[in-house]
Amino acid sequence: MALPPEFLTAAAEAADLAGAVIRPLFRSRLLIESKGDATPVTEADRAAERALRAFLTERFPAHGILGEEYGAEREGAEWLWVLDPIDGTRAFLTGRPLFGTLIGLMHRGRPVLGVIDQPVTGERWIGEAGQGTRFRAAADAPFAPVRSRPCAALGEAEFACTSPDVFTPLELQAHDAVRRQVRRTSWGGDCYIYGLIALGLIDLVVEAGLKPWDWAALVPILEGAGGSMTDWRGERLTLGSAGDVIAAGDLGLVGQVVAALA
Amino acid sequence: MALPPEFLTAAAEAADLAGAVIRPLFRSRLLIESKGDATPVTEADRAAERALRAFLTERFPAHGILGEEYGAEREGAEWLWVLDPIDGTRAFLTGRPLFGTLIGLMHRGRPVLGVIDQPVTGERWIGEAGQGTRFRAAADAPFAPVRSRPCAALGEAEFACTSPDVFTPLELQAHDAVRRQVRRTSWGGDCYIYGLIALGLIDLVVEAGLKPWDWAALVPILEGAGGSMTDWRGERLTLGSAGDVIAAGDLGLVGQVVAALA
């Protein structure tokens, strides 16, 4: 079952809206002078989320909204928009164009639509339940279907992670157990590295401490590209999940990762 | 003393040349199918270095050349070009546009000219001894002067590093000693994070295991932006250096880092 087309249109318009708020602040004098203080970013994040909420509420008054900065409204609604205007605050603060705006839509608790937007490069991923994931490489480039690549064995996996600092000490031990088995590991990237799984360039990301607004948009993008995104037991992510995630380009990897983490 | 202008022109043309070889391979089918095997990247690296060597030898027959893939020619020459067509192989392989082409020029063992070029985004940094560092944000954008930002205390520093895997266990202990004192740490970036120091967005990078082609181009860019790049004792980098580096946006940080590392 395809989603009503106006949901996709709204998600794309919402990403444009957020980008217009966020883009002028990237590498701005304000950020340089704030010297690592995240306050200006928090303010941009809040301003973008307010714009998204106003837009989506007007477009779909019966839908719920859950966002990083302003919490939940109508959380029990059939359709729930899940928003993170700036995923990758640290990348944004340090001038790396690997942060992203995340716009997800859940239907009765299942993520069914997701957008990752990189407002500086213009890259955008769109995933929709039951449909193939699409990607554009620049704001003026056409969308094209993308797929994750086959990778049957953990020992062949290109592994990536935002930072070792996202883990508790126990989680880090489990993560290290995976890391010792993969082919190679690289660091940095937030939502962007999940997008790179959908492009077939990374095979596996294992992280912890994610909130629903960090993963809701990613699930349809991974699934639509032929991969998956689950918790550390290989179970479907829900609003009550603890926030530990396995994102894999090849479904055959998931069981191996679950075993290595256990 | 300003350099002969034809040296700057040649460095910029060399960066264009390398970009034309490298850009078509970024996120290409070939890289996706190589599944983490670096061979296609090594081949692009070699092809780009061959193009750079042919170009620079024709332009400056008496100059020496030192490159990652093909070693040294006329290493004792007064002027020595130091080349790394793809710094950040792993970023390149995984589709992150944070790798760079590095073109450095040394005069009697001192780095006097450096270019960092990001061939996908078109970003380019140019540093020249005794002159201010310049940066353009896109291939069609104008160059503008850039400066690192003040950061007098280690406890205020925005710290970055490519990967914890660049260190030996002893080096990692020393690096951790710095990391415990900084304001915040982020991961990933290779040459790109040194460029972000010159933009005033990161304050400090401490790494080890660098080769001359990894740092020769960076020194004039850091120095021309008001910062510095030294070894872990705060001494000037030379062709005989071990490859441990401190890159700081504020000269006042260097002594504190040296003390923390010791």
Low-confidence stretches of chain A: none
Number of helices of chain A: 9
Most extensive interface, chain pair and sizes:
A-B, 41 and 41 residues
Strand content of chain A: 15-25%
Rounded average pLDDT of chain A: 95
Structural class of the secondary structure composition of chain A?
Answer: alpha+beta
Radius of gyration of chain A, taken over Cα atoms and rounded to an integer in Å: 17 Å
The major sheet of chain A is characterized as: 8 strands, mixed
Shape of chain A: globular
**What's the count of strands of chain A?**
13
Helix and strand sequence of chain A: HHHEEEHEEEEEEHEHEHHEEH
Helix coverage percent of chain A: 25-40%
Oligomer description: homodimer
The end-to-end span of chain A amounts to 36 Å
Report what the structure shows.
2 copies of one chain form a homodimer. The first copy, chain A, is α+β, with helices and mostly antiparallel strands and 262 residues long. Chain A has helices at residues 5-22, 29-34, 39-59, 89-93, 169-179, 191-198, 212-215, 218-224, 252-261; strands at residues 64-67, 71-73, 79-87, 100-107, 110-117, 124-128, 134-136, 144-145, 158-161, 184-187, 204-207, 228-230, 245-248. In chain A, the strands form 2 sheets. An 8-stranded mixed sheet of chain A has the order 2-1-3-4-5-6-7-8, with helices on both faces. In chain A, helix 1 (5-22) runs antiparallel to helix 3 and helix 6 (191-198) packs parallel to helix 8 (218-224). The longest helix of chain A is centred in the first third of the chain and has 21 residues, at 39-59. The radius of gyration of chain A is 17 Å and the shape is globular. In chain A, 52% of the residues are buried. The model of chain A has no long low-confidence stretch (mean pLDDT 95). Chain A binds chain B through residues 27, 31-33, 35-36, 90-91, 93-98, 121, 137, 149, 151, 156-158, 160, 162-165, 183-189, 192-193, 196, 199-203, and chain B through 27, 31-33, 35-36, 90-91, 93-98, 121, 137, 149, 151, 156-158, 160, 162-165, 183-189, 192-193, 196, 199-203.
